[in-house]
Amino acid sequence: MNSFGRIFRISIFGESHGECIGITIDGCPAGLLLTPEDLLPDLERRKGGKQKGTTPRQEEDLPIFKSGIFNGKTTGFPITILFENKNTRSEDYNKQRSIPRPGHADWVAHQKFGGNEDYRGGGHFSARLTTGIVAAGAIAKKLMSDLTIQAEVTEIAGEKDLEKGLQRAIDAKDSVGGIIECRVNGLPVGLGEPYFDSIESVLSHILFAIPAVKGVEFGAGFAASKMFGSEHNDAIENMEGKTRTNHAGGIVGGISNGNELIFRLAVKPTSSTPKEQNSLNWDTGNTEDFSIKGRHDLCVALRAPVIVEAVTALVLADFMLLEQKIKRIL
Ligand SMILES: Cc1cc2nc3c(=O)[nH]c(=O)nc-3n(C[C@H](O)[C@H](O)[C@H](O)COP(=O)(O)O)c2cc1C
């Protein structure tokens, strides 16, 4: 539901236009030096409005530590971090209420929660909830300073030239999707708990929880289905397990093999396209033309790399704690 992880365990809460959103992190080792400033660079990368194609909604996103930090260090007890919602414009969503947005969660949420859900700004389904996840990810990254975790957008609208891909959306007055690639270096051999908690399984679980993610592939991914085994196999070159090629993407048998961890995500086009659409009005029972108001990302993928890095860090910190690669007291 809203919690994830075994030792390094997060619980998220809040709604896009409610008072606040936030996260509680349990299982963070004691003694980690931590200030709100440590979280700011990643929080800054997640914000909208800084680059073309992202939402003009501006929030300060200043982390407020509520528990789990004492004398500038983690205590080993749950860390709760709040972010206030200050820049909301709920009237856009009241007008849209009778026509659930196609591709968004409005219709299913209404069926499942009987109209009790807070629909403003997408409520609990909003990517605003990823703010807390990015904060927790920054803490996980700080715990694993020997690792580098880097995600980037590699394609927009099928174009490797990102500017060109985005321009296609702007010219068409429509939204577009993209591909994000993530690479992790410095991982030890032996992380992952097969059968069901292989690295691929656990990472995929949390990656698919990022709103708008529709596909995940590791290493050669879907292209592996077209290769010969002799071509796909990664020959082992030395006692550290370094392989000549890396079609496996750093994971074999669900366990890290010490090579670079590589995976890619397919992100769908933003459902809230500026283009006119036709869909059901649940007040009248008829379909009608409408266009979505409000502030939206033209290409969701642009803001997602730091979120991908965060969830990857959360999963890896959990595996590292399970494998006792990170101590309970630092
Ligand atoms: C960083 C980020 C920003 C997003 N911004 C928007 C947005 O402005 N408008 C929108 O309709 N969807 C946006 N989404 C996607 C929706 O939250 C998502 O499509 C919706 O909750 C339905 O979930 P699903 O696409 O996973 O099925 C965003 C997602 C992410 C990761």
Oligomeric assembly: single chain
The CATH architecture can be given as 4-Layer Sandwich
Helix/strand structural class: alpha+beta
Cofactors, ions, other ligands: flavin mononucleotide
Strand content: 15-25%
Q: Averaged pLDDT, please?
A: 96
Largest sheet: 5 strands, antiparallel
Q: CATH superfamily assignment?
A: Chorismate synthase AroC
Uncertain ranges = none
Let me know the number of strands: 15
Q: What order do the SSEs take from the amino end to the carboxyl end, as H and E?
A: EEEHEEEEHHHEHEHEHEEEEEH
Helical content stands at: 10-25%
Distance between the termini: 30 Å
Supply the CATH class: Alpha Beta
Task: State the strand order across the main sheet.
Answer: 1-2-3-7-4
Q: Describe the global form.
A: globular
By CATH, the topology is Chorismate synthase, AroC fold
Identify the notable features of this structure and list them briefly.
330 residues; alpha+beta; Chorismate synthase, AroC fold; 4-stranded antiparallel sheet; 8 helices; globular; binds flavin mononucleotide
Question: Could you explain the architecture of this structure?
Answer:
This protein is of the alpha+beta class and 330 residues long. Helices cover 23% and strands 22% of the residues. It has eight helices and 15 strands. It has helices at 40-46, 91-96, 106-113, 130-143, 162-172, 199-207, 229-232, 305-322; strands at 3-4, 9-14, 20-26, 64-67, 69-70, 73-74, 79-84, 148-156, 178-185, 213-218, 251-252, 255-256, 261-267, 277-280, 287-290. The strands form five sheets. A five-stranded antiparallel beta sheet has the order 1-2-3-7-4, covered by helices on one side. Strand 5 (69-70) and strand 6 form a beta hairpin. The longest helix has 18 residues, at 305-322. It is globular. The two termini are 30 Å apart. The protein binds flavin mononucleotide (FMN). The site of flavin mononucleotide (FMN) has 20 residues, from loops. Flavin mononucleotide binds next to loops.
